[in-house]
Amino acid sequence: MEGGFFLIQHIDFVQGGTKIKGIEYIAYDQDTDTLRSHYMDTMGSNFTYTWALDGKTLHINFGNKDSDMYFEGTFNDDNSEYSGAWHYPDGGGYDATLTRLG
To answer: How far apart are CA 65 and CA 42, in angstroms?
Structure first.
């Protein structure tokens, strides 16, 4: 975003046959000393995530950084895509690949 303080991610995907569009604002949160995001979509979802990047490995926790519901993925060589999986406490989850467009 202009000014360099936020990353804005536009989301457009199909999950379980349902088309979902959303937006996510990602920024540094001084109160928690973490990278946080706020996600909203056409299904009425309104979630907060905590992000961490270690080299090419991306870790996204649902809510706080100690949450047991998380995504872990790896960026490709040119950083245009990352692939990984969501892990849920009940053993569920799903694989995901996200690609930068434009």
So the answer is: 26
Q: Enter the tokens of residue 70.
A: 């998380």
Token code pair at residue 59:
């870790």
The separation between CA 22 and the C-alpha centre of its own chain, rounded to angstroms, equals 12
DSSP state of 3: T
Contacts 24+ apart (CB under 8 A), 94-99: 96/71, 98/73
- Confidence at residue 58, expressed as pLDDT on a 0 to 100 scale: 95
pLDDT tens for 69-87 read 999 999 999 999 999 999 9
What's the pLDDT score for residue 82?
Answer: 94
Q: Give the residue-averaged pLDDT of 4-22.
A: 90
CA neighbor of 3 nearest in space, from 22, 27, 35, 24 = 27
